[in-house]
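Weekly structure sync, notes
Attendees: PL (lead), two postdocs, one rotation student
Agenda item 3: pending single-chain targets
PL asked that the sequence for the first pending target be pasted directly into the notes so everyone works from the same version. It is reproduced below exactly as submitted, 61 residues in total.
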Amino acid sequence: MAKILVTMPDAFLHKIDGIAVNEQRTRSELIREALRTYMKRSNINTKKAERDAEVLEDLIR
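Predicted structure, written out during the meeting:
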């Protein structure tokens, strides 16, 4: 597995660590899950935008 270096404010990292402790997860697990969720939501929004554009195209034809 690859490792990356990410810079963030100390206060933000402290919040992340607090959530990780509360959920009994590692910091890495929490961040990976957050990114998976973001990617899934972004993909859903992209697909919805594409469908909306198709509907509009059909309406103006």
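Discussion points:
- The mean pLDDT is 90.
- The two ends are 50 Å apart (CA to CA).
Action: rotation student to compare against the earlier draft before next sync.
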